[in-house]
Each structure stands twice: as C-alpha cells, then as structure tokens.
Design brief:
Elements lengths: L11 H11 L13 H8 L7 E3 L17 E4 L17 E4 L9 E3 L19 E2 L2 E2 L11 E9 H5 L9 E2 L1 H11 L8 E5 L2 H8 L10 E2 L3 H8 L3 E4 L16 H9 L3 E4 L6 H8 L3 E6 L9 E3 L3 E3 L1
Parallel strand pairs: 7-9, 8-10, 9-11, 11-12
Antiparallel strand pairs: 1-15, 2-3, 4-12, 4-14, 5-6, 7-13, 13-15
Length: 307
C-alpha cells in the first residue's frame, strides 16, 4: 500500500513552482555536497569486505525497450582467422546508445535541456555536433565516491516489484527509510529500487518508454531536504506516463536541470539486496567510475557497492 497519493497529476503551474523551489545553481551541481570529509566517512562503511556490481549486463539484442541495442563485434583473431603460428590478438568493437531504456548509464548535467538552457542557466548552444562544451561527463572524470544508501520500495510494500506506471513519493521514501533503519544524509548517493529489473527478468522486456515505475516529482523534495549528491534507480527514475502536465520527464528536469544531480538510470540491485539483508544494513561505500568521455552527455557505468 502506498503511503502518499502519488498518482495525483501535477499541473503546469504547480510543476513550475516546484522547479523554482528546488533550483540550485552550482557549477558542479549537487556533487558540492560530496566533501572530502564525507568521502572519508563513507570508507568506514566497509566492514565485511563484500563488493557487488550495481550495473546490468550490456545488451546487444533488440527488444521492446531496446530498439537500438549496443553493437559488439570481434575485429581481431576469431574462429577461421587465427594464425597457426605466431602472435595474434582478439579485439572488440563496441558502440551503444548511452541514454536508452535497457543499459545502465550515468546522465551528465548537460543531458537535460529545459527552457533553452542547461543546469545553472548555461546556454544550450554549448551543445554542439562535436560534443558538449559545458557540464559534460568530464565533470566526474575522477569518479564519484561516497556513501550509498539503498531504499527498497517494493520490500517496504511487501511486493516483488512496482508495476509499470506506479509512482513513489516523498512520504514513501521516508517510510522505506524508517522501515530499513537507515537515514539518508548530506552527500549520500541515494539508490531507489522499484523492482524494474526483477520484473523484466521474470516477465520479459516491455516498452518502458510508455510505462514504467518511478519517482513522483514530489519525491525530489525529500532529496533536496536531505541534500543528496547523486540519484540512481533500477528504472529510469521517472515514471511513465508522466504525472506532470506538459513535461514528459519531470524528475529528470528537477534532478538534473534544477538541482544539478547526476542521475544513474537502469541499474540493477538484485545482487545487492541479499547482501544488505545478510549484513542487516542498507548503506555502503559506493564507487561510480564513468568512462573518460570529455564532451559526452553521459556514460555507460558499472557502480560498485562495497560493504
């Protein structure tokens, strides 16, 4: 059972008001909350020496949620082209649509254009055919390291996953936090499980662009109050259909554009949850290492949780 009425529509004026309340103009976005002292404190989360990936395997096959799958082909020594003598190398070529609905990825602060600007009022003309001249993924070239906190909303509801279209509001995040005995704080990397990956694994993929579980726009007030540094989900973070009038991705607009939050989309937490249950805690050291793509709007990513 949901805790707050998150299915309520958000009118255009109401959304604009929420956007104005949440807007923070900072050159490095919400990562300003991730101070060296908080990174050092996060290292103390490592107690059991366990570590696990929060990324899903990159998919090279098409599907209803992945019409442009990643391309992987071998370019070196393969069957039929291996010399009988001497040295040879097996090599790979990989190409992918970073911002799709299947593969785990990070959204840079230049990813969301709203009212002709990027986060902090940066002119959208800084986006060129050769790459982004501002707010690219290069901002996190040294990685993101901090205390990760996983809020498992389906677990709090007593279900395996949320159904496509269901939404999670601020009150429900607080309820999940209380149920798990953890508190989200300044500089934390907040991960919200909606069960998208488990549902996909058990029932097969569907058109996630049309229907998916995610956060209601009012959930962003919880993140602002707690001064979260990064937001990630096993879905797109946004629910579909959108509850906000005239805005298809309201959480992206509020998180990336207004608050300067780097988003992590389409992660997977099915390997992490059993470790959290085993260790009886829902916080951990988390290391996020995007590729060095100096002018890109995002990057494939493989976050590692260390308990």
């Amino acid at each position: 059972m949901t805790v707050d009425p998150t299915t309520a529509a958000v009118g255009a004026a109401e959304f604009r008001s929420l956007y104005r309340r949440l807007r923070r103009d900072r050159a490095d976005g919400a990562l300003a909350e991730l101070t060296p002292e908080r990174v050092a404190a996060a290292a103390r989360e490592v107690r059991a020496g366990l570590h696990v990936s929060l990324a899903a395997p990159v998919e090279t096959g098409p599907g209803p949620d992945n019409p442009e799958p990643a391309v992987h082909r071998m370019t070196g020594a393969v069957a039929g082209r291996v010399p009988d003598e001497g040295l040879a190398f097996a090599r790979d070529h990989i190409a992918m649509n970073v911002h799709g609905d299947a593969d785990s990825h990070l959204d840079a602060l230049c990813h969301v254009v709203y009212d002709g600007t990027l986060h902090g009022g940066v002119d959208a003309d800084t986006l060129t055919t050769h790459g982004a001249d501002a707010l690219s993924v290069d901002l996190v070239r040294d990685g993101i390291v901090g205390r990760g906190v996983l809020l498992d909303v389906p677990r709090a509801r007593g279900v395996p996953w949320l159904e496509p279209g269901e939404q999670v509001g601020a009150d429900e995040l607080a309820a999940a936090e209380a149920a798990q005995g953890v508190r989200v704080g300044p500089g934390d990397l907040l991960f919200v499980r909606v069960g998208h990956r488990r549902r996909r694994a058990e029932h097969g993929p569907w058109d996630a662009s049309a229907a998916r579980a995610g956060l209601h726009p009012n959930a962003m007030e919880f993140l602002a109050e707690r001064r979260v540094a990064v937001l990630g989900s096993d879905g797109n973070n946004d629910a579909a259909p959108s509850p906000a009038e005239g805005v298809d991705y309201p959480v992206h607009v509020l998180a990336v554009h207004a608050m300067g939050l780097h988003l992590l989309d389409y992660l997977q937490f099915e390997d992490l949850v059993p470790l959290c249950v085993q260790e009886r805690r829902w916080s951990f050291l988390c290391v996020v290492a995007p590729l060095r793509l100096p002018r890109a709007t995002g990057s494939p990513v493989n976050p590692i949780a260390i308990l």
